[in-house]
Amino acid sequence: MSAMCGALGVSRGGYYAWLGRPASGSARQRRRAELAEEIRQVHAGSRGLYGSPRVTAELRDRGVTVTEKTVAKVMRQEEIRATTDRRFRPRTTDSAHEWRPADNVLGRDFAADAPDRKWACDITYVPTDEGYLYLAAVIDLGSRRIVGWSMAGHMRAGLCLDALEMAVLHRSPDTGLIHHSDRGSQYCCDEYQRRVEGLGFTASMSGKGDCYDNAVIESFWGTYKQELVYQQPNGRFATRDQARRMTFEYIEVFYNRQRRHSAIGYVSPEQFEASLN
């Protein structure tokens, strides 16, 4: 023992003190290990999707006093990363059709002082091994909640009408709501516009080829693709049925009720609306 301590340059008393010390180390080290475990739990609960801002918000809701800087540092050290590194690129809509688009009433004013004052609508494609599905959605600009959505193997006006009818059924909005969309034929056609007018909504449409005029729902498409579609093998679903089931679970269970949104103070849309009531 003496020879070993001499070789290592430590005293026998120092060696035995180290040997009897708890494996967890100092209080600071224990706290750091506990925080790392709490971060792992939050990250796993978010399906591996949260970065440091949302992890921090969740920890604070659990009563943990911590800064985002500390969370980010621990995540780097523990190699805990958000699994959303593939970029979504919005596509502009072909507006070469016979119907006249509405004016851009919204004018990129995406703020709303209450839910059901402004809705934004759009369509995206969903790849599967069996071919494409198309997803139409209606998002509330006040709470960022997806209030209506529909999936089909086509992208005719009926797809968008189904999403709108779901939103109307669940929300019963007052007249005067601003209904914003792109200039696609599905939204410009007589059938769709008659329904918008019949509901007493104010139709608004993006400028030609300008996806930024509908930036909030384009952002949702990016989130949906990164957090769900691109997580699938080869970046697509195996079947159309799987796409429908997983999209339902993502929107209705995770996105609307659990996922924290930076635009509304890192709470879920359901929590945000509940706080207003």
3D structure, described in words:
The chain is an alpha/beta fold. The chain folds into two domains: about 1-80, no CATH class; about 120-275, Ribonuclease H-like superfamily/Ribonuclease H (Nucleotidyltransferase, domain 5, 2-Layer Sandwich). It is built from eleven helices and five strands; from the N terminus they run H-H-H-H-H-E-E-E-H-E-H-H-E-H-H-H. The protein has helices spanning about 1-10, 10-20, 25-45, 50-60, 70-80, 155-170, 185-190, 190-200, 215-225, 240-255, 270-275; strands spanning about 120-125, 135-140, 145-150, 180, 200-205. The protein has a five-stranded mixed sheet with strand order 3-2-1-4-5, with helices on both faces. A hairpin with a 6-residue loop joins strand 1 (about 120-125) and strand 2 (about 135-140). Helix 3 (about 25-45) crosses helix 4 (about 50-60). It is elongated.
How many domains? Answer: 2
Radius of gyration over alpha carbons? Answer: 25 Å
Q: Kindly, what is the distance between the CA atoms of the first and last residues, rounded to a whole number of angstroms? A: 71 Å
Provide the spatial order of strands within the biggest beta sheet: 3-2-1-4-5
Low-confidence stretches: none
CATH architecture descriptor text of the largest domain: 2-Layer Sandwich
DSSP E strands, number: 5
* CATH top level assignment of the largest domain: Alpha Beta
The helix count comes to 11
pLDDT averaged residue by residue:
86
CATH topology of the largest domain: Nucleotidyltransferase, domain 5
- The computed structural class is alpha/beta
